[in-house]
From TrEMBL:
<keyword id="KW-0472">Membrane</keyword>
<dbReference type="InterPro" id="IPR031620">
    <property type="entry name" value="DCAF17"/>
</dbReference>
<protein>
    <submittedName>
        <fullName>DCA17 factor</fullName>
    </submittedName>
</protein>
<dbReference type="GO" id="GO:0080008">
    <property type="term" value="C:Cul4-RING E3 ubiquitin ligase complex"/>
</dbReference>
<dbReference type="Pfam" id="PF15802">
    <property type="entry name" value="DCAF17"/>
</dbReference>
<keyword id="KW-0812">Transmembrane</keyword>
<feature type="transmembrane region" description="Helical">
    <location>
        <begin position="233"/>
        <end position="252"/>
    </location>
</feature>
<feature type="transmembrane region" description="Helical">
    <location>
        <begin position="201"/>
        <end position="221"/>
    </location>
</feature>
<keyword id="KW-1133">Transmembrane helix</keyword>
<dbReference type="GO" id="GO:0016567">
    <property type="term" value="P:protein ubiquitination"/>
</dbReference>
Length: 528
């Protein structure tokens, strides 16, 4: 029995009955049951945008194009040209220049860049931190943070001290949280090698926390620790990945390395006396101290041998994809359990393509654990599932397929002429023959939950491409957009699909670049 309410007190109204299971609560929130949830309106708007975009009357119109003698890059609604000196907004009805800086000297050339966006719910020290910015790396080893809208320099860090001179690459360890700056591989000149001079340090890695930008540490990859045949290194999701010339890939716990081998932490702007050098961290000419010294081989998490060091981890439970380390197995992919290296049932994927360009495979970026396998005329979306009556074993099953439109393609080896003469062909067409529709690009638009594909057909000297949108859950074709410009299959191409925007960047021979922008337009007369 409930106790009586005390005199003069008002009893609270009982809570409305509802689901108390966490999974049900999350599912109901994802479907928009809670109107006060900040994400509900955004999800509804994206759902409306997807419906509008996929309706028959909606078209994508080529609204702008440009050509350049320098590379063109795209990041979240911004087009960068002239080595990031010119920034153009692609969000407006017609693209407009956000800023145009004077041409920079060769010593200020930008080698790599990352877009940095403000984290949600974080208290940041500077008002400028709440706006998008661009992290760029210059040829003279300066790390700059620029305003994405004005190009103004917000922060400036000098990287290279006396130990290293050639930082060239930016990448994310944890996206929008931890950034890694890497040097090119240190190689001695031929004269120095002939003189017997030894070079033991292969790479340097500088690690930063972003927003606010702070220095975590710098470490060296030394052949005395990791071996002579190291060809490349990377850091991703807290894992140090070391690649070797014979196809071996080794994984180490990067966080454990930082904790075990860091000699002394440093802050940017801090005065220091390090190995006889006195200076300020991140300032010229001292740069950053190499404060993480790996003196012993770290504990090995995992290793695998794969052709061309191709190695991916994903799925649930965790699996990895490799190609057996022999040239005859190129195009054959093995999907194995990370737990015990067991090959999944149906885990050998081989399209048996006869093509100039190989097929490719990767874990689906939608975090569903599925796998996308792309061939010249076929896209397979695969899924991991438990083997019936064997809960500890997984098998690879087909979720859905997308097939290129080759209805009019007839590849007969024997033909009969009008006079009745039988003619036999001495060769068959390749699977990626330019005259047949061939898949060139497959991507995923996470906000609209659409799988996009670019298929190309070469008609004489003229190539035609179309961008198709497929339902990510079932693979059903929802929309097809023809690209107006000619597509040469011998050139390099990038296609970005970003909500209501399609952008095509093409690289021609002799460093000639072109950019074509398409925007969504609705035929109001048909809609009415």
């Amino acid at each position: 029995m409930c106790p009586q309410a005390a005199p003069g007190r008002v009893r609270a109204a009982p809570r409305a009955p509802g689901p108390h299971n966490v999974c049900r609560l999350l599912a109901r929130r994802a479907h928009g049951f809670y109107a006060r949830d900040a994400g509900v309106a955004h999800r509804k708007n994206l759902g409306l945008l997807r419906k509008i975009m996929c309706q028959e009357s909606t078209k994508f119109k080529n609204v702008w194009s440009t050509h350049s003698a320098s590379p063109i890059a795209y990041e979240r609604g911004r087009i960068y040209m002239d080595n990031y000196q010119c920034c153009i907004s692609s969000i407006a009805q017609a693209p407009r220049i956000l800023y145009q800086k004077s041409k920079c000297a060769k010593s200020e050339k930008i080698e790599d860049a990352l877009l940095l966006e403000c984290p949600l719910g974080e208290m940041l020290p500077s008002p400028s931190d709440y706006k998008a910015s661009l992290i760029v790396l210059t040829v003279q080893n300066w790390l700059l943070r620029l305003s994405a809208d004005s190009g103004e320099v917000l922060e400036k860090i000098y990287l290279a001290g006396s130990c290293c001179k050639s930082f060239r690459y930016l990448s994310w360890d944890t996206p929008q949280e931890v950034m890694v700056v890497k040097t090119v591989q240190n190689k001695l000149p031929a004269a120095a090698r002939q003189a017997g001079i030894q070079q033991s340090v292969l790479f340097y890695l500088a690690v930063f926390q972003v927003l606010p930008l702070s220095f975590i540490g710098m470490l060296e990859i030394n052949k005395k620790i990791f071996g002579n045949s190291v060809t490349d290194v990377a850091v991703s999701n807290g894992i140090l990945i070391v690649m070797y010339s014979m196809g071996l890939v080794r994984l180490y716990n990067f966080k454990a390395i930082l904790e075990q081998f860091m000699e002394q932490p440093f802050d940017l702007g801090q005065e220091f006396n390090w190995n006889g050098q006195v200076g300020v961290v991140g300032k010229y000419p001292f740069g950053l101290p190499c404060n993480i010294k790996i003196t012993d081989t770290p504990p090995l998490l995992f290793e695998a041998s794969s052709l061309e060091n191709a190695f991916q981890i994903g799925g649930y439970p965790w699996h990895y994809i490799i190609t057996p380390n022999k040239k005859k197995h190129k195009g054959v992919f093995h999907i194995c359990s990370l737990k015990d290296n067991a090959l999944a049932k149906n885990g050998v994927q081989d399209m048996k393509c006869c093509s100039l360009e190989p097929d490719w495979i990767y874990f689906h970026p939608d975090m569903s654990g599925r796998i996308i396998h792309v061939g010249p005329n076929l896209i397979k979306v695969l899924k991991l599932k438990e083997v019936k009556n064997h809960a500890d074993q997984m098998e690879i099953a087909e979720d859905f397929t997308i097939v290129a439109n080759r209805e009019n393609c007839v590849n007969n080896t024997v033909t009969v002429t009008a006079s009745g003469r039988v003619v036999k062909k001495r060769f068959n067409l390749l699977d990626d023959d330019p005259e047949q529709e061939t898949f060139k690009i497959v991507d995923y638009e996470d906000e609209l939950d659409l799988l996009s594909t670019v298929a190309v057909t070469q008609i004489g000297a003229d190539g035609r491409a179309h961008l198709d949108f497929h339902c990510n859950e079932h693979g059903i074709l929802l929309k097809s957009i023809p690209l107006r410009e000619s597509w040469d299959v011998t050139y390099s191409h990038e296609v970005y699909f970003d909500k209501d925007l399609v952008l095509h960047i093409e690289q021609k021979p002799n460093r000639r670049f072109s950019c074509y922008v398409y925007q969504m337009v609705c035929d109001s007369a048909k809609d009415d």
